[in-house]
Amino acid sequence: MEAADASLTRAYPDDRSAATGSYPTFEAAETARKFVSQGGTAAALADFIARDDDYTDHDSNVHSTITFLGNHDAGRFAFFLQQDNPDAPPARLADLVKLGHGLLYLSRGQPVVYYGDEQGMIGRGGNDMQAREDMFASQAPDFRTATLLGTTRTGADDKFDEQHPFYRFFSRLGALRARHPALRVGAMLPRLTAEPGLFAFSRIERHELVEYVIALNNSRTVTLTASVPTSQPARATVMRIFDSRTPDAPGGEALTADSAGAVRVTLAPLQFAVWRAAAALSAPTAPPQISLVNPADEATLSFTSREVDGLVFPTRREIRAEVSGGDGVAEVTFVMSRASRPGQYELLGTDDAAPYRVFWEPPSDLAPGETLEFIATASDLRGHCAVAHIRGVTVAPVKISFGIPGAKTPCILKPAPATLDVTAGTGFTLSVQADGMGPIDYQWLRNGERIAGATAATCSIVQAGRADAGEYRVLAHNLAGTSISPVTFVSIAAATSRLSPCSDTKSVVGH
Q1: What is the rounded distance in angstroms from the CA atom of residue 155 to the CA atom of residue 161?
Q2: Is the separation of the CB atoms in 305 and 313 below 8 Å?
Q3: Average model confidence (pLDDT) across the chain
């Protein structure tokens, strides 16, 4: 489903593209417009980002969502800028275009630039039909005289100019994103400051653990200076690697964290910049602390439904954890266990930024009166874990259809052995047998990390070494859900400890 009105798509919690498995987020485009084009507050933008958990489930999260500033249904971003800033000179409109695309490229999600935006196309009239002009030299009167931002060319010219300043600027942003994985897939942690017009956030990739600090100033006329919180220790430095004013020469400005880990940032009007920490985050001295605060032990969860355009949607219930301690960088994995499937766990989702939560609805094959346990595992990604449980939860009887009618979440009928001792240099094989709505996909994990190529019901290691020791699980996945097998402890030459810091947490870390 597509609709340019974000208020409509808000009503469809599963508005997912069948082709990409992603969500076309019109509401994200509307929120970006409010901050960039209309001078909205950073706090409002941070509040929107805090709702990213709406997209977290067993096989996706907000990082897979399609993000954009305009498209063929909504209209072009440049038209919105003109509409919201009718007295702005061309140079200011050009800076606003760059600011908007800086937010697009550097935030979480999969950014999509609408064709022609890199050529300054405006979309005269603003509606979807006026936003569908092709990029060839136009012969149509309505398009032939159209002006373009950032150039003296018009609609009478073709729009394939690789020297256009927007084309060059977007290329620099794309190259920056390609060079730094954190800017593509890293957790996004909003960093609130005392300046309403300065939006700051960190991006941290879970393996690299190097913090990137991004800050954007939406003021048209005022240079803003603010203290930006980070996860850096005192006296750590972050180096500027991108400056929107000079995208080909970032300048290498270094900022030093104060005793609270904050850095002092100064940005000119409509400027944005990216800084990269000089070193990876160090391991905290103590594990994080976690508590599951919603729902309560032995709670009975009630669900209702709502009807939108003849379609019935069940409500979802928040499963929320609170994490304290450490430097604020952690992931929380939520799983559920049914009393009828002892030793098996169903993945509900992994949240990589606070507030830590998922929004859950019962699977379609949940038996009436089934007793459930919810488990949340916090990992600081540096060897420390903590776990919390909620037990004795049930679902109140209700005449609502959940999930895919008739679908069955994978159930591990025959797990791999609980332990396996292997002599170094020899091979070993682990296998499971699962039942559920087909097809079932598999992904084997070792110590919570995916094993490349291990995507069948059987996992074989041809020549085992010490690095192959550890905890093995398999994810069995179909459209209805993802089940996690019981753990198998594999020791090599009997010299490797069977237990890792997270061995009793039933955690599955990773996206």
Answers
A1: 13
A2: yes
A3: 91
Tokens representing 282 are 């160090």
What's the confidence (pLDDT) of residue 311?
86
Query: Helix, strand or coil for residue 170?
Result: helix
Residues 364, 329 within the same domain = yes
| CA triple 195-199-203, angle to 5 deg | 135
For 358-377, what is each residue's pLDDT tens digit?
999 999 999 999 999 999 99
- If asked whether residues 319 and 304 sit together in one domain, one would say yes
356 in a domain, yes or no?
yes
Q: 157 and 34, same structural domain?
A: yes
Please report the pLDDT score of residue 125 as a whole number: 73
- Final residue of a domain: which of 179, 197, 214? 179
Q: What is the mean pLDDT of residues 265-281?
A: 98
- The residue whose two tokens read 């064709």 is 115
389 and 315 in a single domain? The answer is: yes
At 84, which CATH number? Answer: 3.20.20.80
Q: How confident is the model at residue 494 (pLDDT cuts 50, 70, 90)?
A: low
E strands present in 145-301: 187-191, 198-204, 211-217, 224-228, 237-243, 254-256, 263-267, 272-277, 289-294, 300-301
* CATH number of the domain residue 299 falls in: 2.60.40.10
- The reply to whether 504 falls in a domain is no
Q: Are residues 142 and 260 in the same domain?
A: no
Mean pLDDT to the nearest integer, 244-252: 91
- CATH classification of the domain holding 221: 2.60.40.1180
| Any domain includes 505 | no
Q: What is the pLDDT of residues 460-493, one digit of tens each?
A: 999 999 999 999 999 999 999 999 999 999 999 8
CA distance 151 to 162: 12
Collapsing DSSP states into helix, strand and coil, what is residue 489? strand
The domain tally of the chain equals 4
Tell me, what's the pLDDT at 343? 87
- Closest listed residue to residue 33, CA positions, set 44, 22, 17, 19: 44
Does one domain contain both 254 and 309? no
User: Model pTM?
Assistant: 0.90
Q: Quick one: pLDDT at residue 372?
A: 98
Please say whether the beta carbons of 271 and 217 come within 8 A.
yes
Domain interval for residue 154: 6-179
Q: What single-letter amino acid sits at 109? A: G
Rg of the chain on CA atoms, in Å: 25
Answer yes or no: is 403 within a domain.
no
Q: Convert the pLDDT of each residue in 279-288 to its tens digit.
A: 999 999 899 9
Local confidence band at 95 (pLDDT 50, 70, 90 cut-offs): very high
Domain end point (choices 248, 277, 306): 277
> What's the rounded Cα separation, in Å, for the pair 438 and 456?
14
Q: How many CB atoms lie within 10 A of CB 355?
A: 15
Q: Is it the case that residue 21 has pLDDT exceeding 70?
A: no
Among 295, 505, 287, 461, which residue's Cα sits nearest to residue 382? 287
Coil vs helix vs strand at 51: helix
